[in-house]
Amino acid sequence: MGTGKVKRKSRAHTKKKGFKKYFLSTKHRTKDIDQIQDEMKKGGLKFKYDEDLPGGGQFYCEATGKHFVDAAALAAHKKTKAYKKRLKALKEEQYTQETADFGAGITKEHLPPVSREDSS
Asked: pTM of the entire structure?
């Protein structure tokens, strides 16, 4: 019937609040690399059987901090690109507060100790 353009508001998609909600939520957030490096330094995590965790908490990937349903799912996960990227990132040196301060140009001034002379 019509051969003209469809009239609609421009930028109508920007008003949809639910569009970005999935990416902003913390539900799908993984552990940070420094948290995983701290866990690995302590000797890793050992989980007892827990019904609330997938697979009872027995199939845990330390590199990504995720639980899996069974050993096959864990083995399939270890072949993924995300797992291999995380392993590469974990091999790097862990950042410390001193490294961050040095990068920001904040240096600590080391002064020699003040010696007191007793005048007795």
From this structure: 0.58
